[in-house]
Amino acid sequence: MVCLACQEKINYVDYKNTDILRKFVSGQFKISSSARTGLCQKHQRMVANAVKKARFMALMPYTKLQTLKK
Ligand SMILES: [Zn+2]
After folding, report:
1. Is residue 70, in this structure, part of any structural domain at all?
2. Does 67 reside within a domain?
3. In angstroms, what is the span from residue 27 Cα to ligand 1's centroid?
4. ∠ CA(8), CA(47), CA(65), 5° rounding?
5. What torsion do the CA atoms of 50, 55, 58, 60 make, to the nearest 10 degrees?
6. pLDDT tens profile 28-60
7. How far is the CA of 44 from the centre of ligand 1 (A)?
8. For residue 30, what is the DSSP state?
């Protein structure tokens, strides 16, 4: 299967775009494996690094326990 990000010719994943990053984490906010995301190694690493940066900048939670109950 061809990587979606390669098809879109994406060469940068913005860590501020949490709507997109949310698609690449599980319900527990764990980073999904490349088997699940269908990304190539290059783009999987890009997404994983963006998620880690978003967590550090407090744009995304590290675990589900950090989310606010509504
Ligand atoms: Zn790719």
Report:
1. no
2. no
3. 23
4. 135
5. 90
6. 999 999 999 999 999 999 999 999 999 999 999
7. 7
8. P
